[in-house]
Amino acid sequence: MLQSTLFKKIELCELKKIVIFGVGLIGGSVALALKKADASVQIVGMGRSQQSLQTALDLGVIDVASLDIATALKDADIVLISAPVAQTTSILSAIKPHLNSNTVVTDAGSTKGDVLVCAKQILGNQFSQFVGGHPIAGAEKSGVTAAMADLFVGKNVVLTPSPETSAQALACVNSLWKTCGAKVSQMSAETHDGIFASVSHLPHLLAFALVEDIASRPNASELFSFAASGFRDFTRIAGSHPEMWRDISLANKNALLNELTAYQAELSILKKLIENEDSHGLEALFERASVARNAWAKSKS
To answer: How many domains does the chain fold into?
Structure first.
């Protein structure tokens, strides 16, 4: 059970009002975590679907569902963009005319280089108020009904401030995520995109590709009927939000293409070992991978 001691009130930024664009799994979970920490925070939800906003209201995830950006942003302390990354440009463009000098803007996208470039172009002299962010938490289910107050507890959140980012804005976003129970770290956008192309984006593409391959075969029903835990575990993330992963793949194109090339080279090595019936080579490769994977799992336990 979630303990209230996991949450701390924001100390470096007094948060009275937050506007969340995209009240789905991530945005909804931020809202629930803030409510758990401090019920006095007003949470305003905005999104493309009136139905999803109404669901968020009915579930008590948000306090207000607004369709008017000017009204929503009035006296807002933080704006959190928690929509698919391809929507970032339109959202920033929409809020720019109504953004005052005290409101901090941050995002929760899985790519950061493209987001920072976009924010700098659109926000101009208010770019110092923007802090790139990426919570390393989620699930294969999406939408506000999947949101949970403890989603970020003990999870990593990476912030990617630029040289122009104000110390106050960075402190506010840092405190926001710590209030949600997360462990916060910082790195450059370029470093972030390279790391997550390898350990997050590539695995998702591989899972999608395997399921697509099996599903497109004439005997797909038979294959799926015999699939068990190995297939289930490997392909779990193929149940993720298609629109979100389409946007991530294109936004992190260069780093992801590098990872795909490296993985194809590894598959070629594996194929050659099997073709040559190189039992010692196969076992050595499997042993190295097994040791590395078990060491990683142990470090996370």
So the answer is: 2
Assess whether 207 and 165 both reside in one domain.
no
Asked if 159 contacts 173 with a C-beta cutoff of 8 angstroms, the reply is yes
Task: Round to whole Å and give the CA distance between 80 and 72.
Answer: 12
Are 161 and 249 contained in the same domain?
Answer: no
User: Residue 38: which domain range?
Assistant: 4-187
Residues 65-107: pLDDT tens digits? Answer: 988 899 999 999 999 999 988 899 999 999 999 999 999 999 9
pLDDT digits (tens, 9 = 90+) for 232-267: 999 999 998 898 899 999 999 999 999 999 999 999
